[in-house]
Design brief:
Layout lengths: L1 H26 L3 H25 L10 H4 L35 H26 L1 H4 L16 H35 L5 H25 L5 H25 L2 H29 L5 H28 L4 H29 L11 H15 L1
Helix pairs in contact: 1-2, 1-10, 2-7, 2-9, 6-7, 6-9, 6-10, 6-11, 7-9, 8-9, 8-11
Length: about 375
């Protein structure tokens, strides 16, 4: 099982790099292309919300022993937790105390595998029809140079900045919803139903944010959207910290809505900004961003779990707020880079290498030869 999960993670990461690169380079950086990117991520949010519902019929509906049901009353363990009732993966209870039943999850996994194969078939057909040489030609996506050639130091500093942005964004995107239910149960003494509901509200807020982003990309520039949503996220986490100190439940609910809305718009907009203002989003750039994101996703839960267990549960709020402040600083650096080079009259769009632009150049060269 461990080996299969490891293989699944590797393949999922490769697929993530491919989807990110292809979607940005095919659709380009105009308002219509950015709208398509948001629609893509909206479908991903919908799938994340629907997946647990689709799995539910294959779970056994049996009563769990009182000791297992009260697992959430034990001290927080250092490690990654799950959503829902927040059963920790490193729990050390005896396996004999858990109900011994035959699992039916293989049906859900089989359906998922079948859907994955069905989705892959059209791409395989396109690959076979176009031919290996045409579909993997080195001339299509080989360009990965900075769009501005006048400030190499600024470009490399900004490249580091977007890497840090990717990592900190992962902290807000992954760790915050993972530990939100645990924090509400342990510190705020909420019921399990209320704690699960606030996580659901966060998920639906993120889904709504994707649809809001579809509208925003048509009326605002990428760096402006990033500034607005990063400040919105910071305001939401400030609201969370104040609400926790005053034990105001309404403030916690409001902060979940605000942070979900802001966070969901951030990543697709950042990809559009990178592609149109810094460097074409190729496979190498996508890999760079995702490697840093996965490193932060690996380290942060361990560090945050240790702080929550050994120091105080309030570190959940502190880390979230500090991450949002760092994101604001990252966005300000992006805006400075954009304004400074826009003042110099650089036209970034002319140097962005998409499939359409490459095909046009190839057609022109062919006509010239004839």
């Amino acid at each position: 099982m461990v080996g299969i999960h490891a293989l699944h993670g590797i393949l999922q990461s490769i697929l993530n790099v491919g989807i990110t690169t292809a979607s940005i380079q095919i659709w380009g950086t105009d308002s219509r292309g950015r709208t398509y990117v948001f629609i893509l991520y909206a479908f991903l949010e919908i799938s994340c919300a629907v997946a647990p519902i689709g799995t539910a019929p294959f779970l056994h509906e049996k009563e769990i022993t009182n000791e297992v049901a009260n697992i959430s009353n034990t001290p927080i363990q250092t490690g990654t937790c799950c959503s829902g009732d927040e059963t920790f993966v490193n729990d050390t209870r005896s396996p004999s105390r858990y109900p011994q039943t035959d699992s039916r999850l293989y049906i859900a996994y089989s359906i998922s595998a079948g859907m994955a194969v069905a989705v892959a078939v059209p791409f395989l057909i396109v690959y076979l029809k176009t031919g290996v040489e045409d579909s993997t030609g080195p001339q299509t996506f080989k360009k990965s140079t900075f769009l501005d050639k006048t400030s190499p130091v600024s470009n490399y500093l900004q490249f580091i900045n977007i890497g840090l942005f990717s990592g900190i964004y992962t902290v807000m995107e992954v760790c915050y919803p993972q530990y939100l239910t645990v924090f509400c149960l342990r510190y705020l003494d909420w019921t399990k139903t209320s704690a699960a509901m606030v996580t659901s509200v966060l998920s639906f807020s993120r889904l709504g944010g994707k649809f809001v982003g579809i509208v925003l990309v048509r009326v605002m520039k990428a760096h402006t959207i990033l500034l607005v949503v990063s400040l919105l996220d910071t305001f939401g986490f400030v609201c969370l910290n104040i609400s926790v100190y005053t034990f105001d439940d309404i403030g916690v609910w409001a902060s979940a809505c605000i942070t979900g809305l802001g966070t969901s718009i951030m990543w697709p907009t950042a990809l559009s900004w990178i592609n149109s203002n810094l460097i074409a989003v190729s496979g190498k750039v996508s890999s760079y961003l995702l490697v840093i994101a996965y490193l932060f996703a690996l380290i942060t839960p361990i560090a945050l779990g240790h702080l929550m267990q050994e120091v105080s549960l309030l570190w959940f709020c502190y880390i979230s707020l500090m991450a949002s402040v760092v994101i604001v600083a990252n966005v300000i650096c992006m805006i400075i880079h954009t304004k400074r080079h826009d003042k110099g009259g650089h036209v970034y769009e002319a140097e962005i290498y998409t499939i359409e632009s490459v095909n046009k150049k190839e057609a022109q060269s062919e006509v010239t030869r004839l």
